[in-house]
Specification:
The protein is an alpha+beta fold and 454 residues long. It has three domains: 146 residues, no CATH class; 104 residues, Roll (Pdz3 Domain); 83 residues, Pdz3 Domain. It is built from 14 helices and 16 strands.
Amino acid sequence: MDFLHTVFFFIIAIGLLVAFHEFGHFWVARKVGVKVLRFSIGFGKVVWSYQKNAATTEYALSAIPLGGYVKMVDEREATVNQDDLPFAFNRQSLWARSAIVLAGPVFNLLLAIFLYWSVFLIGEEGMRPVLGPVAINTLAANAGFDAGDEILTVNQHATPTWSEAITQIIESVMAGDSDIQLSVKATDQQLVLRTLTIPPAMAQTPDLLYKELGLQPWTPTLKPIIGTVLPSSAAMSAGLQPNDLIISADGVAINDWMQWVEYVKKRPDITIALLVERSGVQLKLSLTPKAEVQEGQQVTGKIGAGVFVPKDVMASMQINYTLPVFEAFTAACQRTWNYSMATLNVMGQMVMGKASVENLSGPISIAQYAGQSASMGLVQFLKFLAVVSVSLGVMNLLPVPMLDGGHLLLYVIEGVKGSPVSDQAQLLFQQIGTALLMTLMALAMFLDVQRLFH
């Protein structure tokens, strides 16, 4: 079921993003008078199509759902009927051809703005950005953060939720900021300004950066009461049920939930003798945590059970974050711009060898993110779509052969020299681009497969 869930939302995500990208090309082509022969979502063999008559556009779904294309009348690709020559792409003015090519990436960026705008209007419920214990020798500790600090803004951007605060920090780092200003409400209610200084080496790898930040959300001290039990988990196999109170493990008294979590983590595949209280009756159970490999090859125990959180405690830490219509639109434009610049910065750092290629994500990783975000609700899925849409738009604007940006580069050269680039030069340009893209795709797939086994 998890596999089908992931595949379904991956297809939905890619289909929507590709459709919007190709619709940009299609819409502008029609507006400037170019005849479009086929609008296809997907590559390869056509599995479904609709065409009103031979003189109109054919709308198609093709077998490989990892892209799409808009096929226009073009003398460079096939013989064109005399009546269609005025509507051929290659006979259009330089500005018209440029507009058609530019429209795809621009529509992806416009889609991202719309998605972020929707997120800000719908609102999301999240945790207040209050810090838990700050580990020593971390970036947060060096900046003077303390447990109980509440982050109000990051580089003057409001951060009402924990996810907003972390997102703003990561985006600021990706955009090249080495000193990040955070306004904080301390435990004594005083407003203070703290500066996170990011070493260059950490800025190139987001996963490493997140670990070294030393920022973790505040969590209340909770009783070791089971709240949820996942299907097919070690907890279910042991007979644990919601509302069970864990009294002891192997004779060791368990006083709070975090103590219980740490106890389980240290005992992968080791049977624990439990004493629990259920409806006033004490029961003895045997529980064997499943071994799970974490990053860095560390093996920890996992039982597949969540803690019971009293409603009043949950309410005190939750906040519903929404924005008015115009404010939401401004914030959406700002978020899209910030992420676009951050994406460009990371790509540039990778090209120069200053950032790890581990930042690349292939179709397997994207599919996993699609499934995970969909499981977390509509807002998280919309945010995922926005991020990928920005990445797709920015990537296609790069001056790389075979991408939209590569075609735009040829048009710039044509505008400067006053005549089109020669067919031989264009062919060489395309061959280089194909080789680069195939290499990049192969690397992304290799990293995806590698992540599956780590």
